[in-house]
Amino acid sequence: MSPPKPIEYREASPAVRAVFDDIKTSRKLEDVNNFWKYLANDPTTLKRTWDSVKEVMAPGALDPLTKEMIYLAVSVSNGCGYCIASHTAAARKAGMTEAMFGEVMAVTGMANETNRLANGYRVPIDPAFDR
Amino acid sequence: MSPPKPIEYREASPAVRAVFDDIKTSRKLEDVNNFWKYLANDPTTLKRTWDSVKEVMAPGALDPLTKEMIYLAVSVSNGCGYCIASHTAAARKAGMTEAMFGEVMAVTGMANETNRLANGYRVPIDPAFDR
Amino acid sequence: MSPPKPIEYREASPAVRAVFDDIKTSRKLEDVNNFWKYLANDPTTLKRTWDSVKEVMAPGALDPLTKEMIYLAVSVSNGCGYCIASHTAAARKAGMTEAMFGEVMAVTGMANETNRLANGYRVPIDPAFDR
Amino acid sequence: MSPPKPIEYREASPAVRAVFDDIKTSRKLEDVNNFWKYLANDPTTLKRTWDSVKEVMAPGALDPLTKEMIYLAVSVSNGCGYCIASHTAAARKAGMTEAMFGEVMAVTGMANETNRLANGYRVPIDPAFDR
Amino acid sequence: MSPPKPIEYREASPAVRAVFDDIKTSRKLEDVNNFWKYLANDPTTLKRTWDSVKEVMAPGALDPLTKEMIYLAVSVSNGCGYCIASHTAAARKAGMTEAMFGEVMAVTGMANETNRLANGYRVPIDPAFDR
Amino acid sequence: MSPPKPIEYREASPAVRAVFDDIKTSRKLEDVNNFWKYLANDPTTLKRTWDSVKEVMAPGALDPLTKEMIYLAVSVSNGCGYCIASHTAAARKAGMTEAMFGEVMAVTGMANETNRLANGYRVPIDPAFDR
């Protein structure tokens, strides 16, 4: 009946250690975050999720800081406490200043407000948006 | 019992026209979007919302394109059809390329997935995130 | 593979007709709304849901108009298109004016905004709220 | 200004005790969970909610384990901490193994991701789904 | 990497103090809640949010108690822990009784249930709601 | 400014065709659903998402029908119209009967209701759930 427990490196299977090693190398960390230690209870999900996050968060058309701020905005919108803490930290590490944090919050708050105003007033999509 | 109706410029009160004029000037538009025409049913909410959006979306520590992409990511996360259409258009106008759009979607999708994995595994916040 | 279909009174079983009759009598309607016609595909859920809605929405410590406005605010927050339409109609029937509708929308929008600001800034609960 | 408090059996009214007794008998528990002790502040909601949960979660076309895993998936998606803990426990009691838990989490995470990709790409419903 | 910290009055800038003073006067409080102390990290968002909340929550077509109960219902629906605590307190201060609280919860719960039933059964909007 | 468009097989790149071919073979379909045609605008996301869905939805500790019903329950909870339609179809194809569909809806609705009751009453987690 106990809740999920973290898997530490010393007790991890070779498959889990391989993912942990890749996370530590890619992210230049001494240890992986709790998120990965808990996912390690399901090595398949651990590997798939890490491979996906690594691919999605790599620099591309958007830089890592922009991606982290988007991740944070979504996590705030969904109210995921763990994710808000971890992606605030990640975004700061990627260069987010206090002023940037304030603006991410302001945009996230405003989007949540106007999303509901659009719902409530049942606003039809402007034809111009579909051309 | 009829649903809300849009208020067109020609039938709008002076207070509503003043807001519409400011939107058109600030955004360099010939007409305001449906969102504003529907909010015009409540001139107080119209003015407050426009003043807030104008302040929040102005260039600051973040550029307008980054802000529009965050707005879009939140709207996608909340499933607001009108806001997805209007902020996709706004982000494109601000310079979002197809490749950037693809990455905003990829990050938004991944954040929604890992937010739930963190919830379900009941992952405690790492002390390092609070130092 | 077809989506759910509505059950009309003429084709309904006696158990479904009994619920439809009670809805029509209680709500003083000539026919039930689509919501009930679709739920009728599962007579158990139809009866349980109607019995619950009837009990919850009856006048009590709160009057029916206040209850309908709360129902509308939640539906707007969740982005349920059908529910926004049906509970806007129900609230108007219960006495909601245009001005009241505008204020329900304004409060709903503001709550959605500040909910996210509280999440993002990770605001701890004031001890005074727990005394 | 104090938050809701639990109602213990010894201080409960006969109406609340009757519900508590039925929960304990049906669920083979020595005491009811906190959820029911808090709902007991409103005996009408307590009784209606228990009667509904009892009906909905009874074996039918779906077995109790499948129902508990669906309940857990929805609770994870909504981020309800209490419900995640209580329905993880309930699902385990009904036979959910560690491997099943991992797969419920994986499906829940994936659904949350693709729900947003479908929103963001504004994918129209295939005609085949409506035939 | 540390999380946001509250700004206390004694360390606040004149701009922040002016907002804090207005909150304390308007709300007849000796000190502002944590929400405002955290928002004070971004004085622009602090001022805009307070001005908006003050305008939206003022008595109008709806009385302050009704507004606070709607705010609470939305916060419960979104699962914002801080907001549930603060708006339960605010609603009680505005006159919400235990019985009223119970009914707000009952309506909020029922709306969340039927919102999903309407989604899942894909119920089309009744033409009568659009006339 | 136009919204995303579907990519048909005949106009697709070899990389996209390879994914489409794998979907058609795995799912025994003559053509892929709109979801995949729209994701094809971003071949990287298309491939990653398909590989993940294929892995997650494969038979394992849970059978495909159970997985599809969980997917449907989450999609209903999130209000994703496309996903509700596509996963209702997929679940039916995997063997979901009308009675099973009704019970998935009933459980999903009930979970959404009690999630909010637990939020609103601020119910603390029972120590027994953590042992």
Describe this structure in words.
Six copies of one chain form a homohexamer. Chain A has 131 residues and is mainly α. Chain A has six helices and no strands. The termini of chain A are far apart. Chains in contact: A-B, A-C, A-D, A-E, A-F, B-C, B-D, B-E, B-F, C-D, C-E, C-F, D-E, D-F, E-F. The interface between A and B is large, with 64 and 64 residues.
Topology (SSEs and partners):
6 copies of one chain form a homohexamer.
Chain A: H1 14-27, H2 34-39, H3 43-57, H4 64-78, H5 81-93, H6 98-120
CA radius of gyration of chain A is 19 Å
**Shape assignment of chain A:** elongated
Query: What is the arithmetic mean of pLDDT of chain A?
Result: 96
Element string of chain A (H = helix, E = strand): HHHHHH
Share of helix of chain A, binned: 55-70%
Structural class of chain A: mainly alpha
Tally of helical segments of chain A: 6
Low-confidence region ranges of chain A? none
Throw out a few tags for this protein.
homohexamer; 131 residues; mainly alpha; elongated
